Amino acid sequence: MKNIYLESGSANHCSTRAYNHNTKEGESRFQTAFEYATVGISIVSPEGRWLRVNRKLCAILGYTQDELMALTFRDVTYPDDLKKDSDNTRHLLGGEVSTFSMEKRYIRKDGGVIWANLQVSLVRKADNTPDYFISVVEDIQRRKKAEIALQESREQLKLFIEYAPAALAMVDHEMRYLACSQRWRSDYGLHGRDLLGVSHYEIFPKISEEWKAIHRRCLAGETIRAEEDRFVRADGSVQWLRWEVRPWYQGGAISGIAMFAEDITSRKQSEMALQQLNIDLEERIANRTAELKTLNQSLEGFVYSVSHDLKAPLRGIEGYSRLLEEDYTDRLDDEGRLFVRNIRTGVRRMNELIDDLLAYSRMERRHLESAVLDLSMLVKQEIEEGFREEIAANGVEIIADLPPLLVNGDRDGLAMALRNLLENAIKFSRHAAHPRIEFGFVHDDEYITLWIRDNGIGFDMKYSERIFELFERLHRQETYQGTGIGLALIRKAVHRMGGEIRAQSTPGEGATFHLRLPKAQEKTATVMEP
């Protein structure tokens, strides 16, 4: 027995040592788990003073363990959350609940506010009196910020929809209203009605099958819109709408549809009025154009007839004055012979004027023969064939080293323009010490501009537009002869070819005329020989 007792005693002794070992090992594990938990853990006295805190809680609140142990949970609780926290603690102490959970805000040591999820349990003594609280604090700052941002976004979206200047509405998969704008209620006569949760088809029981089909298509994932749609209201009034119906998604799945409608009646009425105005205007323009065409034809016919009619008496005056000069010159004194010369000079000038008027009239009426022309070849032809003697007689230096310059134009009209420009350049530079006429060019993707520069008398730029008008002259006939029609004729010809002409000058320093013409397409160009 004794041996058994000893053995038994020995066994009890071993059991006690194993128990102490296990207890120490358990405490060590608890200590490690408590200190290195991923959430804040604390043991708090019934009076609210921390008895023990772990590292994570200190990190969440920004205090050292010693600093935090000197405070109570009330010292670090955000004032607005203190009452709720105290009420929950009171219910826990009163035995009404065994644990509670809440979201609350803590004040960190640096003054910042952090959101946390708090779970508190009460441990009681054997006599059921409160012993201590175990609190678990989880940092939910990032999630809470996201929730607040989401809530703010929802509120902003709600305000946007509510006060949108267009009719907006959102419905769920069963076509029940989730949100709608004031404009939606206004446009559809739904003032004062609470639409949330109500079916769209209950609001509009007579809605057409066509619209129901549109809703079904959108709930299946389609977006349908119309830029303008004629809508007849129940009262018979006509309204024009721009509308769109599209699905909206939640969690990757279609949760309903969003409907948009904008009243464009005013815009449509303005467009229709503008269209009618354009039709009326086009008719008026067509009628006015026909009238002007008839008037121009009559005017051109008048100019042509008058010019030809004037030729007949002029031929008589020219013939008799020539006979008078040839057969009776010995019977006239010096003054009489001067009178005859003046008559013949006037007849010659009148003939020139009539010829120029006829040329201007023909320019209005003639059919344009548009072709690809080489400007440099036309210039060369006029210099060598048209003005060779005059250039030599006046000692004019010509600089015209031009490459091929292919343009679209009317050959006769362009030749006439170059001839007149070259004639003017010679006429107004003949009194220069060394008369010089220079040709050059510039071009871009669409146009070629040929310029003709002389070193003659020039003119004041305030007359740069006036010189292209009919019968406009800047000099006396006795000084520089001309009819005042040449430049007007050039501009008419160039404009009819889709080009432009302009002049630059300084008095006493010559003049430059810029002739701008459409560039020919080189891939399809076949040059017409002069």
Quick overview:
By secondary structure, the protein is of the alpha+beta class. It has helices spanning 2-35, 55-61, 65-69, 79-93, 141-163, 182-187, 200-203, 209-219, 265-327, 334-365, 375-386, 388-394, 411-429, 486-496; strands spanning 40-44, 50-53, 99-107, 113-124, 130-139, 167-172, 177-180, 224-232, 238-250, 253-263, 370-374, 397-399, 406-410, 436-443, 447-454, 500-505, 511-518, 527-528.
Protein model, in words:
The chain has helices at 2-35, 55-61, 65-69, 79-93, 141-163, 182-187, 200-203, 209-219, 265-327, 334-365, 375-386, 388-394, 411-429, 486-496; strands spanning 40-44, 50-53, 99-107, 113-124, 130-139, 167-172, 177-180, 224-232, 238-250, 253-263, 370-374, 397-399, 406-410, 436-443, 447-454, 500-505, 511-518, 527-528. With 530 residues, the protein is α+β, with helices and mostly antiparallel strands. The protein folds into four domains: 36-139, PAS domain (Beta-Lactamase); 146-263, Beta-Lactamase (2-Layer Sandwich); 269-357; 368-528, Heat Shock Protein 90. Strands 2-1-5-4-3 form a five-stranded antiparallel β-sheet, with helices on both faces. It has a five-stranded antiparallel β-sheet with strand order 7-6-10-9-8, with helices on both faces. The protein has a five-stranded mixed β-sheet with strand order 12-14-15-17-16, with helices on one face. A hairpin with a 4-residue loop joins strand 6 (167-172) and strand 7. The termini are far apart.
